[in-house]
Design brief:
single chain, 303 residues, alpha+beta, 10-stranded antiparallel β-sheet, 33% strand
Length: 303
């Protein structure tokens, strides 16, 4: 891949094997016919040469490209608009580009906010528009977190809810399924070097489980935009809980770690009937509000 690239296009057949692997990881039924919403995170992935990776396990160039050497990358949240489900056994295409970049000054140094947009199409239809919000912080910045093993507190007794027991093996397997080599998820030494007390539970795994609660409860994600935000890092092996908000699962969901701390929140809103064309670079949309909220919690250190 060239170091200066405006977009990356990848086409492949939506294979059933990846869905089977994810279903077994989550201890749920293997889907048939179509890929459940959010499960596209294990498909159409970039598989970069190992030589492209930096010390932290992320590529040093491409989409997105680190704004400078040594900058620490955090996954802050995103939005997934699902117009339809991808069909197994048929080719699909993912088009990836940077849709927004912003520079800010935080208490720990410079911060770069990057939004990466992925458009998923199949048989001439846009089925998924997926935006990822990524933050780059300075090399000497630190994070604070109370998540992880310790004095456990019960999650709110709200239904519906789901739990997932996370250990080192599950974190490693999810990294493999999503082709995510960031070392904070499987290398204790590197996690401590980035300022975490233990291995970090993937933000997309927490978002996926929020989506699973919506899907399994019958509310569904097709025809909706699922917006999610990581508000505190979850670290260390533990059993976490996904629960509906007080207003019910159709209004929102949230993740609670073993200590009862809310680490991620999600919300649903209806979609327009037809997917809009990709906006030009430099868009101003829902992300502007998301970033203003993210700026308030950056010191907590998002995964």
């Amino acid at each position: 891949m060239s170091e200066a690239v405006e977009q990356v296009v990848r086409t492949e057949v939506i294979a059933h094997e990846q869905a089977e692997a994810l279903a077994n990881l989550l201890s749920t039924e293997v889907p048939e016919g179509t890929l459940p919403p959010l499960w596209h995170w294990t498909h159409l992935l970039e598989r970069r040469p190992h030589a492209d990776l930096g010390p932290d396990g992320h590529p040093t160039f491409g989409i997105p490209a680190p704004p400078g050497p040594g900058r620490k990358r955090m996954f802050a949240g995103g939005r997934v608009s699902t117009y339809g489900e991808l069909v197994f056994g048929r080719p699909a295409t993912r088009t990836t580009r940077v849709s927004d970049t912003r520079e800010k000054q935080g208490r720990t140094g410079p911060l770069t906010f990057v939004t990466v947009r992925h458009d998923y199409t199949q048989d001439g239809r846009t089925l998924i528009v997926d935006e990822n919000d990524i933050v780059y912080r300075s090399a000497d910045s630190r994070v604070s977190s109370a998540s992880g093993p310790g004095d456990e507190a019960p999650a709110p007794a709200r239904e519906p809810s789901l739990t997932l027991a996370v250990d080192e093996a599950l974190l490693f397997r999810f990294s493999a399924l999503t082709y995510n080599a960031h070392r904070i998820h499987y290398d204790h030494h590197w996690a401590r070097q980035e300022g975490y007390e233990d291995l970090v539970v993937h933000g997309p795994l927490q978002a996926l489980m929020m989506g699973e609660l919506v899907r399994r409860s019958g509310a569904g994600l097709v025809g909706r935009t699922f917006s999610y935000r990581l508000v505190s890092p979850m670290v260390g092996p533990q059993t976490f809980t996904v629960a509906a908000t007080e207003a019910g699962v159709a209004a929102g969901v949230e993740v609670h770690d073993a200590r009862g701390t809310v680490t991620a929140v999600g919300a649903l809103e209806p979609l327009e009937p037809v997917a809009a064309p990709a906006p030009p670079i430099g868009r101003v949309s829902r992300t502007a509000g998301m970033w203003s909220q993210e700026a308030l919690c950056l010191e907590s250190g998002l995964p």
